[in-house]
């Protein structure tokens, strides 16, 4: 029955759109004859309600993904300040940020302290592992193979990432762990360009934890990017990060301190 209503809803909607291109008089006749004569009032009401639900669901999903990915980008920006590789993430449960984190590999000298692992560790301090089955992970860079497997073991519901990880990606670039039995949904490419710009800013300089022969000379772009993030003060917001990333580094204006606080989840 639901499929029947959905089909009728789509037909009525497109018929109405077509009618918008014709005269108003024809449109009124169309509404009277087609909607009210050919279809019962209960079906009309059901179709309209279903259409609204479908549209709201689509809009909600699109806006929600970008909103939470922006929070992940904020975490990645904080990673640059901490001289960490700029990867940030946020776990979301019932449309609420459950835990935020960024890479901690350089400070800890532990290659396993990826943003995802740090955030998971904090969640498990207060929740049972079963909570992950209702969680979505937003992360700026495609999870590596290690993280992708860990997310599968935890039973994560969905993963949304920005840019791909061509060398170590576990969600499509190298392996597709999420497609194995008992896997999870994956959405890629959300705010991809912003994630790439942060990585370019970092790798344009050098990774302080890399072996000396492998280090590159400091690059003006990394310094400029870090300075612009620092100039926003201890309180930065989504608007700050996106404004920093939307302009060439050479012409980025100073950013005023904003009143929206973010930080690593305690």
Report on the structure:
One of its GO terms (cellular component) is nucleus. InterPro entries: APOBEC/CMP_deaminase_Zn-bd (IPR016192), CMP_dCMP_dom (IPR002125), Cytidine_deaminase-like (IPR016193). This is tRNA-specific adenosine deaminase subunit tad2. It is a single chain. The chain has about 270 residues and is of the alpha/beta class. It has a domain at about 65-210 and about 220-235: Cytidine Deaminase, domain 2, CATH 3.40.140.10. It has helices at about 1-20, 25-35, 40-80, 105-110, 115-125, 145-155, 190-205, 220-230, 240-245, and strands at about 90-95, 95-100, 135-140, 160-165, 185. A five-stranded mixed beta sheet has the order 2-1-3-4-5. Strand 3, helix 6 (about 145-155) and strand 4 (about 160-165) form a beta-alpha-beta unit. Helix 3 (about 40-80) runs parallel beside helix 7 (about 190-205). The chain is globular, with a radius of gyration of 24 Å. About 30% of the residues are buried. The model is unreliable at about 1-30, about 35-40 and about 245-265 (pLDDT under 50).
Whole-angstrom Rg: 24 Å
Largest sheet: 5 strands, mixed
Number of strands: 5
Under CATH, the topology of the domain at 64-208 and 219-237 can be stated as Cytidine Deaminase, domain 2
Low-confidence stretches: 1-28, 34-39, 247-266
CATH A-level architecture of the domain at 64-208 and 219-237: 3-Layer(aba) Sandwich
Q: End-to-end span in angstroms?
A: 48 Å
CATH homologous superfamily annotation of the domain at 64-208 and 219-237: Cytidine Deaminase, domain 2
CATH class of the domain at 64-208 and 219-237: Alpha Beta
The arrangement of helices and strands along the chain is HHHEEHHEHEEHHH
Domain CMP/dCMP-type deaminase: 63-175
Keywords: Hydrolase, Membrane, Metal-binding, Transmembrane, Transmembrane helix, Zinc
Protein name: tRNA-specific adenosine deaminase subunit tad2
Pfam families: dCMP_cyt_deam_1
